[in-house]
Design brief:
alpha/beta, Aspartate Aminotransferase, domain 2, Aspartate Aminotransferase, domain 1, seven-stranded mixed β-sheet, three-stranded antiparallel β-sheet, 13 helices
């Protein structure tokens, strides 16, 4: 078999006619910026996660930056985040003028609340957990820390739309939550896009102004802002895709079960928590990140067998990018993880036969070696 890591054409092909009809409706009207489809998509997304407000923006990175700016985070402030995250999380902090403080991850690859607690200083203003790979952090522990130290919580839930912790959706725990609509996400548009969730009315007002050059609903400029509006065309596409979103999540969870059934007996492999393993977590499996003590050999073997895998973010945590000129952080768990972790294919274009084939090849690798 030849199994690519991701089939980008699939995200269009599975709803081709509906998506084309929605796109034509927008284009025939010439309704490209801040039009009704955006309002409808924002309302539908807010209902889906149980948030009071949803604000469409140009991309997931902007959503984090705007959330920080809306809450006055800037020079002199520290923001605690996991180093096991995409560079956008730290970049948003940097460009807001604050200092990213990078901490270690827990065994589930998410931010370690104990490491967060140890990193809090008088300058700490925000805890920014990354809800990574479609799994939501232990938000009870993080919110308790935030209350104890009077800190804000802003979630990087870029990979976690629909993920839950104790029946509550990622993106709804803090003052604001960020979602990416990048094409490879579980819900993605055909370019860059993002969402912000908030249950705070004033924060939502400020976010809508910040994304549109600082203009209020009367068109008056009331603050400095940027151009970060989710295009109506992308909103129309996402509105169509949102209709089958629960089925998309269900299929990913089914694939995760197949991986666990096929690989759970391998001592060298560490798998993500299973979909039925922990009642506190409802994971959507944006990615399927595993660990192997023989990672590079295993990836080479899978490549030879036609299975494409990747290591996220060029194989480095944020604190390992020398070009960022960050302070030195001692993060042994994260550094060990990046010697072992990689992603198996995880998307709804995969067939059961393809997943079984991947598992068979991994089993064969360990039998041969």
């Amino acid at each position: 078999m030849q199994i690519p890591f991701f089939r980008y054409a699939h995200v269009f092909g599975q709803q081709r006619d509906e998506i084309l009809a929605a796109m034509l409706k927008v284009m025939d009207r010439g309704a490209f910026i801040l039009q009704s489809e955006l309002t409808e998509f924002e309302a539908a997304a807010a209902r889906f996660v149980g948030s009071k407000h949803a604000i469409g923006v140009a991309n997931g990175t902007d959503s984090l930056f705007l959330a920080l700016k809306a809450d006055g985070v800037g020079p002199g402030d520290e923001v605690i985040l996991a180093s096991h995250t995409y560079i956008a999380t730290a970049a948003a902090v940097h460009f807001a003028g604050a200092s990213p403080v990078l901490v270690d991850c827990a065994p589930d690859h998410l931010i370690d609340p104990a490491a967060v607690s140890a990193a809090i200083t008088p300058r700490t203003r925000v805890i920014m957990p990354t809800q990574l790979n479609g799994r939501t952090c232990d938000m009870d522990a993080l919110l308790a820390l935030a209350r104890k130290h009077d800190l804000l919580v802003i979630e990087d839930a870029a990979q976690a739309l629909g993920s839950k912790f104790k029946q509550r959706c990622a993106g709804t725990f803090g003052l604001a939550g960020s979602i990416s609509l990048y094409p490879a996400k579980v819900l993605g548009c055909f370019g860059d896009g993002g969402l912000l969730f908030s249950n705070d009315d004033q924060t939502a007002v400020v976010l809508r102004e910040l994304r549109d050059h600082g203009r209020n609903t009367d068109g008056l400029v009331v603050r400095w802002g940027i151009n970060s509006r989710l295009d109506t065309l992308h909103a129309a596409i996402c509105l169509v895709k949102l209709r089958i979103f629960p089925e998309e999540i269900a299929r990913r969870r089914q694939i995760a079960r197949l991986y666990r059934e096929g690989l759970h007996d391998l001592e060298d492999i560490v798998l993500p928590p299973g979909p039925d393993q922990d009642p506190d977590h409802f994971d959507i499996y944006q990615n399927y990140e595993i660990e192997s003590g023989r990672r590079d050999e295993l990836r080479d073997y899978l490549q030879q067998k036609g299975v494409k895998t990747i290591i996220q973010w060029a194989g480095k945590a944020v604190h390992q990018f020398a070009g960022l000129d960050l302070p030195k952080f001692d993060l042994p768990a994260t550094e060990r993880l990046f010697q072992r972790c990689f992603l198996l294919p995880m998307n709804t274009s995969l067939t059961d036969s393809e997943v079984h084939y991947i598992c068979e090849q991994i089993q064969q690798f360990y039998c041969n070696k």
